[in-house]
Write a structure and sequence with these properties.
With 528 residues, the protein is an alpha+beta fold. The protein has eight helices and 30 strands. The chain starts with a helix and ends in a 9-residue tail after the last helix.
């Protein structure tokens, strides 16, 4: 019976031990679970994109201890990107995503996956987008009116023949459609002096001149045409502006550049003048620059002082006009709006100046505290040495009716004392130094400790302040001014009188960048 009970107890112990081992193995198994990973397309070059072409794929996640995954873009999302929580991604880069001169542009996108157990994983994908050239576009062109036996010139409107990629455009004539004697330049100028028969033929039937607009350097082409008609009238000149539109908006300190092209159906030599009138007197006349007789540029930079506080913007009209010799005219009215803009460079310089001034003040105070500390230490050492120079004179002369000089020799003193009657006791040299002359030793030690505490505190706070705001981006944060005030307030010591810090104290050394950097290691003068 005893053997049976003993066997039963051994069996129960074995079962409990096995369960304990099984329970202890569970966390290890969980911890051995693989981390969450994202699976992307495996095709070669799938990350190489082109403007205007769709990239589409679906992400899949593996690993972790959960079953349900949620997908998102952690950072780097670009305009037009579509990415839902199931992992489906689609993006068609716009044609303005890559600068034509750069050729390519890389966009780094950080994808993130999270499961229901709050486990997550990320992966960064660098998408390389290549620029795709688009051919020029040629819209409807205004007709060209020619006069008999006179040189006639026609300039293709740059707004009608343009390239959306900003590529330079040259014009190539279709030779078999050109009338005899006509010329077509690569800049889009058609010139022709028709003979009498040619003029009469154009009067009976208008002529259409076809050409190619070709962008550079891609050599993509688009065909255009304009109508040539005969006229005996003195038509007014025309003015066109690039970029087009009757309203423009610019921030302060941004360069305004408008290009004006003049044309006269009776010949460009019929153009008398070109100018502008502004509602705002601060727009200088020198902003209009003449390149050729038929081409002008308006180049103007409204500085940071153009819009005065508290105004947010200033709007005004500028009328550009062209007049021919018959006083006929054409004009283009453009409404300008200049918005108030913060001068970031000036603001950064002001913040840096405040940052540096606070550190200079802290460095200056530290130098004064160090000097005061050295002085107090010298006084304290002198006080301790004074114990060895104590001299005591006891004299008992009884009733004497004269004066007797007495000389007392001591290791550090040589004094002559005169006594008259009675009994005198005098202390010569230094007896606990400041206990005899000046303040108490206890006060000396207290002031020394206070100065050392303030010096250490100022050094610590100065190091933190210099390190935290060494970069421009950090000084632009709102809390900079608050912490600057707190740091400056730390230097307003209440115990200036007790510390015997002279208000008119002048530092012998100049507060140079190297001096500040030696005191506060993280100060970076190049970050200003």
């Amino acid at each position: 019976m005893k053997e049976t009970v003993l066997a039963f107890l051994v069996f129960c112990s074995a079962v409990l031990a096995g369960r304990a081992q099984q329970g202890a193995a569970t966390p290890a198994a969980d911890s051995a679970a693989s981390p969450i990973q994202l699976a992307f397309p495996e095709e070669a070059g799938w990350k190489d994109l082109q403007e205007g072409r769709l990239l589409e794929f679906s992400l899949h996640a593996t690993g972790g201890t959960g079953q349900r995954y949620t997908y998102a873009i952690a950072s780097g999302q670009q305009e037009g990107m579509a990415f839902d929580s199931t992992g489906h991604f689609a993006w068609t880069p716009g044609h303005d995503f890559v600068d034509r001169l750069a050729g390519t542009r890389t966009a780094e996108v950080v994808f993130r996956v999270t499961n229901e157990k709050n486990e997550s994983g990320t992966h960064t994908v660098p998408f390389k987008v290549a620029h795709v050239n688009r051919p020029p576009q040629v819209g409807e062109l205004k007709p060209f009116y020619v006069q008999y036996n006179k040189p006639n010139a026609y300039q293709i409107d740059p707004n009608a023949a343009r390239d959306e990629d900003g590529d330079p455009v040259v014009f190539i004539p279709i030779v078999d459609q050109m009338p005899e004697g006509a010329k077509f330049s690569s800049g889009g100028e058609f010139s022709w002096k028709p003979s009498l028969s040619q003029f009469n033929a154009v009067k009976n039937k208008p002529l259409y001149i076809e050409f190619f607009a070709e962008d550079q350097p891609a050599k993509s082409r688009a065909k255009g045409r304009f109508k040539v008609e005969a006229t005996s009238l003195d038509l007014p000149p025309t003015v066109s502006v690039v970029p087009g539109g009757n309203a423009v908006r610019y921030p302060e300190n941004a360069t305004v550049n408008l290009k004006f092209y003049l044309a006269d159906p009776n010949g460009d030599d019929d153009i008398a003048s070109f100018g502008f009138v502004s509602d705002n007197p601060n727009v200088p006349k020198t902003a209009l620059v003449k390149n050729t007789a038929t081409q002008y540029e308006f180049i103007w930079n409204p500085g940071y002082e153009f819009v005065r506080d508290p105004l947010d913007s200033v709007a005004f009209n500028v009328s550009f006009f062209v007049i021919d010799k018959a006083q006929k005219r054409d004009e283009v009215k453009i409404r300008f709006a200049v918005t108030n803009t913060v001068n970031e460079a000036e603001k950064d310089q002001q913040l840096y100046s405040q940052y540096r001034t606070a550190l200079v003040r802290a460095w200056d105070l530290l130098e004064q505290l160090k000097e005061s500390e050295e002085k107090l230490k010298r006084d304290y050492r002198r006080a301790r040495r004074g114990k060895k120079g104590r001299s005591v004179l006891n004299a008992s002369l009884g009733a004497v009716s004269g004066v007797a000089p007495v000389t007392i020799q001591a290791p550090t003193t040589a004094k002559m004392v005169s006594t008259i009657g009675g009994t005198s006791v005098m202390t010569l040299g230094t007896l606990e130094a400041t206990e005899v002359i000046g303040k108490s030793t206890k006060d000396l030690v207290e002031r020394l400790n206070y100065i050392m505490d303030k010096k250490n505190e100022l050094q610590l706070k100065g190091d933190i302040f210099a390190r935290k705001y060494t970069l421009k981006s950090q000084r632009r944060r709102p809390e900079f001014i608050k912490e600057l005030d707190e740091f400056v307030a730390l230097m307003n010591l209440k115990g200036l009188v007790a510390l015997e810090l002279h208000a008119g104290w002048q530092n012998k050394n100049k507060a140079t960048d190297s001096q500040i950097q030696r005191t506060f290691k993280d100060f970076n003068p190049d970050a200003g």
